[in-house]
Write a structure and sequence with these properties.
mainly alpha; Helix Hairpins
């Protein structure tokens, strides 16, 4: 039960630390605390965790340190809430969370905390992957793929799974041209399915087209499919805004634009972006 001394203690503080955060979260979920916090579960706030993480990414992209500090606090709150929920049912506590990550970092950095010598970042990453596979009992490539969370964004998951197949068993294209040929094969198959009017098969093959596109992206420098699609979406958004602005400047009702005029506005918007 929350009492007045708890509230007075926190109101009197000039600066707060991690222990304060954990105590506040405990008070919020305790009888007499906050009804909303008290009724939350791991499942009910899992999307909040994702949203807070993306907001932290937005702050990083904007290079806004003040916002990043705030958003990292929101992410930390999510960690505290999930840990408090686990502690309430006797599963684990904050100390076990921090103990686990510290042990993992020490184990996976034998070149820092052990006698292993490395001569490149690539070797560091290979050692990390090897230690991770051993610790998780991933004895086959298939088991390693199974440990890639299905909850990841689809493009990111596809890239990770495809990379594991390429790196471990040599199931890979020799270069980007071979990858593009595979992509073109899938597109041709999609056209055939569309010609037949087979909607179900079209859906399957379109998925294969997307997977093949992710596969091809691996051959590009910095070719992260998730990031590439984000950039493409940004370009579309900017060009569309230019199309609307151009139509307005010419006294054209954009809602009525179609056909050749729509194409001209689109090309004009692309040209402006390249200047």
């Amino acid at each position: 039960m929350t009492d007045i001394s708890d509230r007075e203690e926190f109101l009197a503080k000039e600066r707060y630390g991690t222990a304060d955060l954990l105590r506040i979260v405990s008070i919020l979920r305790a009888p007499g605390g906050c009804p909303w916090d008290a009724e939350q579960t791991h499942v009910s706030i899992r999307k909040n965790f994702i949203e807070e993480t993306y907001e932290a990414i937005e702050a990083i992209n904007r290079q806004d340190d003040g916002l990043l500090c705030e958003e990292l606090g929101d992410v930390l709150l999510q960690l505290a809430l999930h840990t408090q929920m686990a502690q309430e049912r006797g599963a684990f506590a904050w100390e076990q969370v921090t103990d686990g990550i510290c042990r993992k970092l020490i184990e996976r950095h034998p070149h820092v905390f052990g006698s292993v010598e490395v001569d490149s970042v690539g070797q560091v990453l290979r050692n990390w992957d090897e230690i991770k596979r051993r610790s998780k009992g991933q004895n086959t490539v298939a088991s390693a793929m199974e440990h890639v969370p299905r909850e990841l964004p689809a493009l990111m998951r596809a890239g990770k799974i495809r990379q594991k197949a390429a790196a471990k068993v040599g199931l890979d294209h020799k270069d980007i041209f071979a990858a593009l040929e595979a992509l073109e094969d899938e597109v041709r198959e999609l056209r055939k399915a569309a010609d037949r009017g087979d909607q179900a098969y079209c859906s399957d093959v379109l998925g294969d087209v997307l997977f093949a596109a992710v596969d091809a992206s691996r051959f590009l420098k910095g070719g992260d499919a998730e990031e590439l699609l984000t950039q493409a979406t940004d370009r579309f958004q900017r060009r569309f805004a230019r199309m609307e602005a151009s139509a307005k400047a010419h006294g054209i009702d954009f809602a009525q634009v179609a056909g050749d005029m729509l194409g001209r506005l689109w090309e004009e918007a692309k040209a402006l972006e390249q200047e």
